[in-house]
Amino acid sequence: MTKAIQPVIDGIFKIFETVMVICIALMLVMVFGNVMLRIFFNTGIDLSEELPRFAFVWMTFIGAIVGMRKHAHLGVDVITQLLPLAGKKVCWGISQFIMAVCCGYIVYGTYLQHDILQGNASPVAQISMIWVFGVSYLTGTFIGIMCLFNLYRLLTGQVQESELSDVMEEGMSEVDEIAAEVGQKA
């Protein structure tokens, strides 16, 4: 079943990445355009104060989803690297469970504030603030599902030992390649 749904999941994440690109392009165009208007024409676009800020919120929250999938979040694994395989699995399971609970709180907290956010409008664009901060529904749901799926995989024995350390240090892949080459020559 996972292989059948994988293209759909890949498509969803491609959409997320596209939205992130659109957000950063919107921020660039609006801020740069507003700066140029202020410098050369002593005027500006009022909307360019709000829209880049809203795009930044969306880009950050959607980037958190993409980062979770690509294991790109920061982490500290000094202690877990010293543990045996069973200890690594327990720690990884606990961290996945804690993240799933936090995601539940994010979604629940957004639900509690939904009516307040929906009733407030942004000062310039006059759009409901739920369109700005409602992205936390999306982030909490998707990351929570990923954590629950990881817990399922852990309980069914589908998690590889290499996945138990989500920390990918910069430059370490090159060190591993050189070590492998040296090992082959020896």
Number of strands: 0
Which sequence of SSEs, written as H and E, runs from N to C? HHHHHH
Average pLDDT over all residues: 88
Global geometry:
extended
**Computed Rg:** 22 Å
Beta strand %: under 5%
Please tally the helical runs, counting DSSP H or I stretches of 4 or more residues: 6
- Please tell me the total number of domains: 1
Distance between the termini: 44 Å
Summarize the structure.
This protein has 186 residues and is mainly alpha-helical.
Detailed description of the structure:
There is one protein chain. The termini are far apart. The protein is extended and about 70 Å long. With 186 residues, it is mostly helical. The model has no long low-confidence stretch (mean pLDDT 88). It is 74% helix and 0% strand.
Task: Outline the fold blueprint.
Elements: H1 2-41, H2 47-69, H3 85-119, H4 130-133, H5 135-155, H6 172-185
Helix pairs in contact: 1-2, 2-5, 3-5
Name a few traits of the molecule.
single chain, 186 residues, mainly alpha
